[in-house]
Amino acid sequence: MSLSVLYILDINGTVLLFRDYRGDVDKNVIDNFIPLLNKQENLEITSPILHHEGTTFAYIKFNDLYIVSVIKKNANVALIFSFMYKFIQITIQYFDKLEEESIKDNFVILYELLDEIMDFGYPQTTDSNVLQTYIFQKSYKLKKIVSVPAVVTNVVSWRPEGIKYRRNELFIDVIESVNLSVNSKGAILINEVSGCVKMKVHLSGMPQLRLGLSDKILLAINSYGLGQESISFEDVKFHQCVQLSRIFDKNISFIPPDGEFELLSYRLNTDIKPLISVESRVIKNSYSRIEYRIKISAQFKTTSIANNVEVTVPVCLDVDSPVFKTSAGIASHVPEKSAVVWKIKYFPGGSEHFLYAQFKLSSIKTEEKTERAPIQVKFRIPYFTISGLQIKFIKVIEKSNYKALTLVRYTTKNGEYLISFN
Known about the structure:
By secondary structure, the chain is mainly beta. The chain folds into three domains: about 5-155, Beta-Lactamase; about 170-270 and about 385-420, Mu homology domain, subdomain B (Immunoglobulin-like, Sandwich); about 275-380, Immunoglobulin-like (Sandwich), CATH 2.60.40. The chain has seven helices and 25 strands. It has helices spanning about 35-40, 75-95, 100-105, 105-115, 130, 150-155, 215-220, and strands spanning about 5-10, 15-20, 50, 55-60, 65-70, 120, 120-125, 135-140, 140-145, 170-180, 190-200, 210-215, 235-240, 250-255, 260-270, 275-285, 290-300, 305-315, 320-325, 330-335, 340-350, 350-360, 375-380, 390-395, 405-420. Strands 13-15-11-10-25-23-18-21-20 form a nine-stranded mixed beta sheet, covered by helices on one side. The protein is flat. InterPro entries: Adaptor_comp_med_subunit, AP2_Mu_C_sf, AP_mu_sigma_su, Clathrin_mu, Clathrin_mu_CS, Longin-like_dom_sf, MHD.
């Protein structure tokens, strides 16, 4: 990754703290950051990366602070941003808030953290649970154990020992998000599904979990590198706690972190029929009246129901006196968004509904051919997944043999779901 210097600046560009890792950058180079930032804003350009005479600034603005990485050599900028966000996460876990006051009050421990999480521009230990076992704060003073703690070399560094709960519980959420973009001619530009398995773990001790997944995703995982077709799953990624060598046993084994974490993420590479389709028509009867006609259809199975469906229909800026007719739900004009928001609480699969909206135009003017913003659709379908991924079983193995309450939920929801006017 080869990061040279990490700076923390206030909103005016004053250096609050910095750590030079490689010694290959002039100390005054940060003086160029704010002028470059102001120049970018004047040109109405937004970019998190700035360049100046062979030096690159990658920055994040957070709570009126600038976290700035200075890069001299060619580097993977995605990893650098990932590191900066991880640094923010670590500091929040230490101080609750990352702001100017917390930096001034805790600069000693911040320097120690910067020394531990990176060495010569390369990330080292960035697990906050590990760091808190040997770098901790008391009355703004640092106490550091010189010897390397066991958790740094232990294979279970993500979970401390001695956790106890009065009630042992385990919650699993399988969530799939649909990203769809349809142009004015009805052609699908983007059609993808991203999914994840999230867990909330409140279990005592050091439990070993065995999770059984449906055969589809197991075949997809096991086919990587074997020249086999991976069905519809792509980019399958596991949390570090999963024992990858045991995936071939038709289940996955792991010792989970405590609390909430993402066990698994994936994408689907199979085109799917849009779950909710939208047909739209705009009719300008005269220079003083305009109509919007919208039809939405639920194209998922009839046994499922979409909850809290919200269709946002952009309208002209100069409209008033709205008149609505709907076959279901409630429509309202939201002037600050220049849109009609149509809300339907329950939308069963296989059904369709209509919206008719009529407005008066507040000013008489010739029609302008401007590109309309797309219609946005929000929805949530419980007990349903597009991929068919299922949790077949979950076993909790712990030496005390306690019983754990387990709950599995499935949800499909909208991601960026945009449909242009026909």
